[in-house]
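To illustrate the input format used throughout this study, we show a single complete record. The first block contains the structure-token representation of the backbone; no residue identities are included at this stage. The design step must infer an amino acid for every position from geometry alone.
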């Protein structure tokens, strides 16, 4: 009896678990600060939960693109990100995570995973983008281009007649030349 190959969701979960163990091992040996470890592990838990919810919604056929219109009413803004933001920052802190980066690259070449990512609305890719940035992995789905801001209509400049050379006053030694003409009134 042969076992069925693991689904992309299970493979993704095993990659996250491997990352979790590598970060926890660094903390236990004293090579990673506890507060940073807690932030990283919390982020891993958020990514894993978001991916599970996403896979469940796709399996149930409940994925519908969201309307983008800014933040939803009644929703509080999230806490600011206190993790590093540069590419491959996790690999620099935890070199053992390079293996997970390789596994994630391989997972993204799987046709099932590509189909899963293609069905996802752009707003749900945020956790995956975060993980890819940590590990310096290219996400196979490009972010949709942001709509260009409409430029305000150009205001027509008022028609100005350039002054003629003879009517433009010139100052020589502090005196106006030619002198102003007397009013004909």
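Output of the design step:
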């Amino acid at each position: 009896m042969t076992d069925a190959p693991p689904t992309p969701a299970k493979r993704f979960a095993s990659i996250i678990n491997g990352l979790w163990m590598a970060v926890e091992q660094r903390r236990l040996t004293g090579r990673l600060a506890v507060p940073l470890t807690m932030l990283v592990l919390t982020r891993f838990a958020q990514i894993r939960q978001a991916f599970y919810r996403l896979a469940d919604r796709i399996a149930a056929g409940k994925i519908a693109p969201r309307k983008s219109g800014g933040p939803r009413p009644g929703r509080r803004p999230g806490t600011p990100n206190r993790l590093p933001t540069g590419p491959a920052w996790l690999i620099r802190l935890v070199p053992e995570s390079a293996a997970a980066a390789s596994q994630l690259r391989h997972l993204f070449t799987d046709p099932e995973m590509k189909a899963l990512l293609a069905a996802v609305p752009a707003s749900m890719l945020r956790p995956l983008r975060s993980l890819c940035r940590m590990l310096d992995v290219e996400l196979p789905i490009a972010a949709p281009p942001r709509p260009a801001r409409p430029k305000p209509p150009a205001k027509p400049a008022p028609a100005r007649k350039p002054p003629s050379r003879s009517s433009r006053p010139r100052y020589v030694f502090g005196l106006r030349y030619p002198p102003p003409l007397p009013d004909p009134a």
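Structural context for interpreting the output: The helical segments are 8-28, 34-60, 89-93, 98-108, 111-118, 126-135. The longest helix spans residues 34-60.
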